[in-house]
TrEMBL record:
<feature type="signal peptide">
    <location>
        <begin position="1"/>
        <end position="19"/>
    </location>
</feature>
<protein>
    <submittedName>
        <fullName>DUF5727 domain-containing protein</fullName>
    </submittedName>
</protein>
<keyword id="KW-0732">Signal</keyword>
Length: 259
C-alpha cells in the first residue's frame, strides 16, 4: 500500500508540473533592436534558476531581483515550475548571450540571444551562432514533428546536442571531445543530420513529442541555444490535472484505510 501511495503522489506531481508551465505569448527569447534602443522581454523558466550570466558577469537570482550591469531583471514565481522573468534596459553593442543557469548544471541552461542592430556581433572562432529568424520558444501545437537547427562556425568546432530539462548529452563531436552518439536511447529524437560549408556546420535535429513541453539544446561547451518546444497549450490542463490529482489522492486514501 505504501508503494501505491508513492505512485499516486508521483503521478500527481508529474501531472501538476506539466500543467503549470506554459509559454508566454510573444516570447521568442530572441532580442533584436538598434544599439541604445530600449527593450522589454518577458520569458519563463521551468525552475527557479540560481544565476544569470552576461559575458563574464554572473549575478544570483535573489529576492525577486536578477539585475545586471546591462539591464534590469525581475522574476516572480506564482506557482511551482513556472518562473516568469522580466528584462528591461537598452541594447548595447557588447550584449550577446543572456544565460540562466543552475548550480552544478542540474538543469539545461535557458538562453536569450541578442542581435544589436539586427546583427550577430560575436565572431569567436568555432562558436555557436544563433539564427535571428528561429525563435528559441517553439509553438508546435498542431505538429507531430519539429526540425530544429544549430549552426557552428569553423571547420571542426566543439558540438554538443542535448535533450530534456536535465540537458542530457545525446550527440558530441569535434575538437578535443570524445565522440558520443546515443540517439537510440532517446525515442523523441528521430534524426540528427549535418550540413557543412567552408566556414561552418549546421546540425538539424528532427524531434517528436515526449512531454507537453520538451527541451532541446546545442552547445559549443561555452554557450548554449536551448529550445523550449510546447506541443500543446496548457488551456484546460491547468484545471484537469488539479482535479485528477485530488481524485487520485482520495482513491489512495480510501484504499489505504480499507486495509
Amino acid at each position: 500500500m505504501a508503494g501505491l501511495l508513492l505512485l499516486c503522489a508521483a503521478l500527481a506531481t508529474i501531472l501538476q508540473t506539466d500543467a503549470q508551465l506554459h509559454a508566454i505569448p510573444g516570447d521568442t527569447r530572441i532580442l533584436k533592436g538598434d544599439v541604445n534602443s530600449s527593450f522589454e522581454l518577458k520569458t519563463v523558466l521551468p525552475e527557479l534558476y540560481d544565476v544569470v550570466t552576461v559575458g563574464k558577469e554572473e549575478v544570483p537570482l535573489k529576492d525577486g531581483d536578477c539585475s545586471t550591469s546591462h539591464f534590469q531583471c525581475k522574476y516572480s514565481q506564482s506557482v511551482s515550475y513556472h518562473v516568469e522573468v522580466l528584462l528591461t534596459g537598452k541594447i548595447s553593442p557588447d550584449l550577446k548571450w543572456i544565460v540562466f543557469k543552475t548550480k552544478n548544471m542540474t538543469f539545461i541552461p535557458i538562453t536569450i540571444a541578442v542581435f544589436p542592430n539586427g546583427q550577430w556581433a560575436d565572431s569567436t572562432a568555432d562558436a555557436l551562432v544563433p539564427n535571428a529568424s528561429q525563435p528559441f520558444v517553439v509553438l508546435a501545437h498542431k505538429n507531430k514533428l519539429v526540425k530544429l537547427q544549430c549552426t557552428f562556425n569553423g571547420v571542426n568546432p566543439k558540438v554538443q546536442i542535448l535533450t530534456s530539462l536535465w540537458g542530457n548529452v545525446v550527440f558530441q563531436t569535434g575538437k578535443d571531445l570524445q565522440a558520443i552518439n546515443e540517439t537510440e536511447k532517446y525515442p523523441e529524437i528521430i534524426k540528427i543530420g549535418s550540413r557543412k560549408s567552408p566556414s561552418s556546420v549546421t546540425y538539424t535535429t528532427t524531434l517528436k513529442r515526449r512531454f507537453r513541453i520538451d527541451y532541446f539544446g546545442c552547445s559549443d561547451t561555452t554557450n548554449w541555444i536551448t529550445y523550449m518546444v510546447e506541443w500543446e497549450k496548457s488551456g484546460f490542463g491547468l484545471i484537469k490535472p488539479t482535479w485528477l490529482c485530488i481524485f487520485l489522492c482520495m482513491v489512495c486514501t480510501v484504499l489505504s484505510t480499507s486495509k
